Amino acid sequence: MTQPTVGVTALPQSCDGRPVQRVILDNGSIRVALLTRGAILQDLRLAGVPHALTVGSPDASAYQDPLRYFGAIVGPVANRIAGGRARLDGIEHQFDRNEGGTTTLHGGADGTHARNWEIDVARADRATLTLALPDGTGGFPGNRTIAAQYALTGPDTLELTVMAATDAATWINFAPHGLWNLDGTPDLSGHTLRIASDYYLPVDETALVTGAVAKVAGSAFDFRDPRPIGPGTLPVLDHNFCLSRVRRAPVEVLTLTGAGGLALHVSTSEPGVQIYDAAGFDGGAARDHAGSPIGPGCGLAIEPQGWPDAPNRPGFPSVRVEGGTAVRQITRWRFSRPG
């Protein structure tokens, strides 16, 4: 693996008027590159595997656009909020409508993906990045403090813990937005996906949830047994799969397997997981870690989170957090090798 020495490196790019920094973690079996911009998981390599497993770019400037969400921690409220507004204790809050002028996506244009986080801890096996969001940022209430710890917790295993506290009632729903391709190929051809979910959330033509909670049984969204994904397969995926109605201890919920047999097992504490197959994505001039264009179906976004539009859907698991309290969200990525 030809990556920089373990540690922290300042890059020529800037964010929030400060240099973006790269943090390298390595425990001998897994090597990770993080960026302070967006707390991005920029690159992940396994010993003996000759390609990156995350879709991204060695050029940090590509994460300003078009890769603005790739690998980032998105929030403070991930996914879509219908109409760019929601009510809290009788007060309507207006958010940045950064998707088509009508919908708030991933906290707005100035969400956590676009901010330069601070390095609090950087060791060979773990790093903690922190961020403060003042009251009213993006229209969301409460002074919030966030800490994201990436830790190499064992062979071929990376764990992310996001801790967030607020001094006033607000909504908090972060999600890691890494895109995964286990074969190092231009698209997801040859991959299979299994999701331990009995229900999913249907969406309308604008990708907003309708409010219905539908059974996967008998539908195109039944991934309880492994199924092929990628170009030429249906359905096109940008949907939330329901895992529970409460946050809980991390449970393995999903397996993505490449054509060569390398598998990614995802565990999470969250009640849902958004799956996006990037079928219509156009990376423009951006190049991936192998120097190739980043195009349609390049990877699978696996985003453990609360259910979309929860601030406007009282029947969905709540993402409300009271003032003076904190939440903890955990995602674990474990790889298993063929044979």
TrEMBL record:
Signal sequence span per UniProt?
none
Q: GO BP, one example? A: glucose metabolic process
Gene Ontology molecular function terms on file: aldose 1-epimerase activity; carbohydrate binding
| Keyword annotations | Carbohydrate metabolism, Isomerase
Entry annotated with the keyword Transcription regulation: no
At the top level, the lineage of the source is: Bacteria
For this protein, the record's InterPro entries field holds:
Aldose_1/G6P_1-epimerase, Gal_mutarotase_sf_dom, Galactose_mutarotase-like, GH-type_carb-bd
- Say if the entry is tagged with keyword Isomerase: yes
Q: Which family does it belong to?
A: Belongs to the aldose epimerase family.
Name of the protein described by the UniProt record: Galactose mutarotase
Lineage summary? Bacteria, Pseudomonadati, Pseudomonadota, Alphaproteobacteria, Rhodobacterales
